[in-house]
Structures are given as structure tokens and as C-alpha cells.
């Protein structure tokens, strides 16, 4: 898409953000376990507080469009050591963001990874915005929009409150990401397979409304959303399978697909575009969360893009009918120790029916448990997960196209200052997929990726 063609869309989406996220950026995260929407925007848990006492500090202005309060920059640079064959982002079969030398052995590289400009204007006391524009290494466009949305958040009165959001955003699925801009991970560098895929293929252009209520000592919230521009969701899960990385879908970007079978390489374009509308059929999602007086919370999320599997463009971008259910749990057994768990189960379908079966019909599931423990100005965390897909489509080899895998992640985080945070992570992942034979590779591959990251927020 040319720049002139993008200008109306940029203008339409330039009103953006959340007052709640802005407030979170300036406060320490609560000690109780919290879902994605309540995680502090800066991954460092021990942010510096205002030097003025809270009861005498001047309140933020009701309108603040462009100032030091509304603009911030997030920079990420890394030293990476990884093995494995060609990575998926270059059209290969390895499922991590970084791969090794040509022979699959280890390669070490210092790399600039991401630069984000985050704008969080406050239009009124109740209406605010969030626009995140980023350069990401390995993305198609040099600079692109990550998120752009407006939030309406009136003050709560009584036991019931209402809020709303509209624009380009990720629905609240991930427990591993912050919402204060640029959708950054909090505990590890690399999110789980579930939330890596959320970052790729569940970004929407839509609107949602949330109702929250207090019932005695219990808090319950329910969210309903309607959206479009998400018709290709499921393409990567079917042709590549699950992956572990921190690449994020952008407004105009796309992802490479690995080599496909002889039928699909002519039926499907070699890339998938994350934000596209093909069938003019809106999708929907719903979320409910329960917070009892004890130190845990549970949420359930259901998503259906209502895509038409038989719709396609001249350049062979297809509609996919993608549905999934996601369960999330946060728990703090003792102060400073947090447990996160997520599980996802879904299906996606594409193409015409042959004998009542779509060309592609993929069942997918994954789950993880993450344990994080605070130590001074830092944190150590560990995550274990499994993932698999099962193929039932008429034009796919069922045995070769299925995927089975697991991953273990160990990570450490340290807040050097309120603006500079360091991460160290070791990721070990194993996956099996028969289609690797097309490249002369064994069905299974075990990869190790070691990353040291510095994040600067100014």
C-alpha cells in the first residue's frame, strides 16, 4: 500500500489511548496478581515515584494533547546467541525469532530490535488515547503503527462502572504483556506460544464495552467486542504452527509463510497480511473475569472472527474462520511471588469444501504456567509450556502438517534505574513437524536462544 493511500487511515486512527494505562505508567504495580490490563506499562516493577507527596502533588490537567506527560520513547537492544536452521520470519521452518548459522550451529549477534514512539493524549477527564508507532527489526515496513485507540473511562460511582475502547488494538487475552504503550512483555523477553500468536494474528480494528461490578467482596467484569480487519487470522497456525517470538503485527505489515505443499503454494500467497478485511462480516469476542477477595483472579475469553473461508483476493489472501476459547489465571501464593497460567483451544478453516471438508481445517491448543518471584529491584521467572496442532483439511497431509512441541524459559529482570531495565533469558524449545522434510531437514528440531536485552524508556 502506497503512502498516499495510507494517509486517510493514519488520520482516522490517530486519535488514540487509555487514561488508565497512563496512570499505570506512573505508579508501582499492585502487589496482588493482575491481568494484562492492570500491568504497569514499564516492565520495571520498582519505578521511581514522584518526589512530591501524593496528597500535595498537582493533578494532571484534564486536557493534555502534546507534552512531556503524553510522549515517551521505548528502545530495545540485544545480544543474541541462537542455533537452529532458517527462521520462520525468513520463510524457514525454525519457530523462534532468531536462528543459527547456515549449518544450524550457534551464531552470536548484537542487534537493535525495536524503537517505539508512544503518544498518550488526554482529551478530557474521561476520554484519552494511545498511539504506538514503531520500528521493529524483521518487519516489512521500516516504521508502522502498532496500536491506535481511544478509551472512555468515566469515574466509578457506586458498585457498577462502564468503560469503552475503539480503534486498532489487541483484545485483552495476554497475561504477559503491559498495556501502557508498545504492548511489551513484562516477565520475559519472549512471550509464550499462545501470546506470540496473539501478537501475530488477533489484532483487530474494533470497539468494546466493559461493565464492572462489586458484589460484596467480589469483583466481576464482562467485556463484549465487535471487530473487523482480522480475516486472515489462523494462516500462520495452519501453515507454520505455533512459534515463540516477540514480533508484533502492525497495521500494514505481513509475515512470511514457510514452504507449502504443491497445491497450497499456488492457492495461497507466500505471505499473510495481519490487518485486512475480506468479507465485510464483523467478528466478535467476549471476556468475563472474576476477582474474589483472595489473591487470585480467573478470566475466560471467547473469540470468533466469523471469517468466510471461501473469500479470497486476486493476490490469494484468503478469509479464515477462526474461533478459540482462552482461560487465564493469576495467583499470588505469597507476597512477591506470582503465578500465571493460560490455556487456549481453537479451530481455523480455509478454502472450498471437498466432500464436506475445507481445504485447510486445523485444530490447535496450547497451555503454559509461569512463576515469577521478585528479588529487590528485579525478578526471576520460569515458564513451561506445550503446544500442538492437528490437521484435518482435504488438501493437507494430515500426518505431515501436524505439530507437537514444548518449551522451557528461564528469565531474569533488573531495574537499573526507573528508565533502564535489563533482561536475561534462556529459551529452549523442541518441535516436530513432518513438513520440514521439504527442506531436507529432520522432522524434529531443538533450539536454544539466549538473549540479553536493555530497554530504555524516556
Descriptive report:
By secondary structure, the protein is mainly beta. The protein has one domain: Porin (Beta Barrel), CATH 2.40.160.10. It has a 16-stranded antiparallel beta barrel. The chain has a two-stranded antiparallel ribbon with strand order 8-9. The radius of gyration is 22 Å and the shape is globular. The protein starts with a helix and ends with a strand. The N terminus is likely disordered.
Helices and strands, with pairings:
Blueprint: H1 3-13, H2 19-25, E1 71-82, E2 107-119, E3 127-136, E4 144-152, E5 160-169, H3 193-201, E6 204-215, E7 218-228, H4 235-239, E8 254-256, H5 264-267, E9 271-273, E10 283-291, E11 296-304, E12 321-331, E13 337-354, E14 357-375, E15 378-391, H6 398-401, E16 403-415, E17 420-433, E18 444-457
Antiparallel strand pairs: 1-2, 1-18, 2-3, 3-4, 4-5, 5-6, 6-7, 7-10, 8-9, 10-11, 11-12, 12-13, 13-14, 14-15, 15-16, 16-17, 17-18
Précis, in short:
By secondary structure, the protein is mainly beta.
Integer count of domains: 1
Main CATH class: Mainly Beta
Q: H/E series, N to C?
A: HHEEEEEHEEHEHEEEEEEEHEEE
CATH superfamily: Porin
Please give the count of helices.
6
* Low-pLDDT stretches: 1-55
Strand neighbour order, sheet with most strands: 1-2-3-4-5-6-7-10-11-12-13-14-15-16-17-18
Assign the CATH topology: Porin
Terminal residue distance: 32 Å
Q: Assign the CATH architecture.
A: Beta Barrel
Characterize the largest beta sheet: strand count, sense, and whether it forms a barrel: 16 strands, antiparallel, barrel
Radius of gyration: 22 Å
Give the percentage of residues in beta strands.
Answer: 35-45%
**Inertia-based shape:** globular
Given the helix and strand composition, which structural class is it?
mainly beta
Strand segment tally: 18
Mean pLDDT: 88
What is the helix content?
A: under 10%
